[in-house]
Amino acid sequence: MNRLVTAGLLGAIAIALGAFGAHALKERLALIPEAAAWWQTATFYLLTHAVAIGAIAGRSAWPTRLWTFGSVIFAGTLYAMALGAPRWFGAITPLGGSLLIAGWVVLAWTSSRES
Q1: Which residues contact 88 (CB under 8 A, 6 or more apart)?
Q2: What is the H or E stretch that residue 45 is in?
Q3: Rounded distance between C-alpha atoms, residue 71 and residue 46, angstroms
Q4: pLDDT tens digit string along 35-71?
Q5: Following CA atoms 99, 91, 13, 31 in sequence, which dihedral angle do they give, to the nearest 10 degrees?
Q6: pLDDT at 1 over 90
Q7: What residues contact 42, with CB distance under 8 A and at least 6 apart?
Q8: How far apart are CA 58 and CA 102, in angstroms?
Q9: What is the rounded distance in angstroms from the CA atom of residue 40 to the CA atom of residue 103?
Q10: What is d(CA 44, CA 59) in angstroms, rounded to the nearest whole number?
Q11: H and E: helices and strands count for the chain
């Protein structure tokens, strides 16, 4: 998939889910003390990495892959827990975070080799 398409889709999803959480799910997210913070964190990381993918669209594909899968796992598990999924989903969240970090490391490494 074209990296700008990926960036656009992840960005649109992040904005839609952020708005959905802030408005349609406001009362439901209030039922679990951490739910609103999880939702907000998931949306922030999803949007941040959508922008990053767009910013490096002409560069190495590996950071994009890592950020895409990392964003889906990281944000997805937080969204799921905010909606009432079992807390053990939180054990999966760091896998997504590790993929996000790996994407940044790969970007730094490939960029350093280009200079």
Answers
A1: none
A2: helix 35-55
A3: 6
A4: 999 999 999 999 999 999 999 988 889 999 999 999 9
A5: -160
A6: no
A7: 17, 74, 75, 76, 78, 79, 82
A8: 19
A9: 22
A10: 23
A11: 5, 0
Residue 2 tokens read as 């074209």
Do 102 and 66 touch, CB atoms closer than 8 A?
A: yes
Residue pointed to by tokens 């490494």: 109
Tokens of 104: 């940044």
pTM: 0.93
Cα 9 to Cα 13: distance, rounded to the nearest angstrom: 6
pLDDT at 4 exceeding the cut of 80: yes
What are the structure tokens assigned to 18, written together? 């952020």
| CA-CA-CA-CA dihedral for 100, 101, 107, 112, to nearest 10 | 180
Alpha-carbon span 62 to 82, nearest angstrom: 30
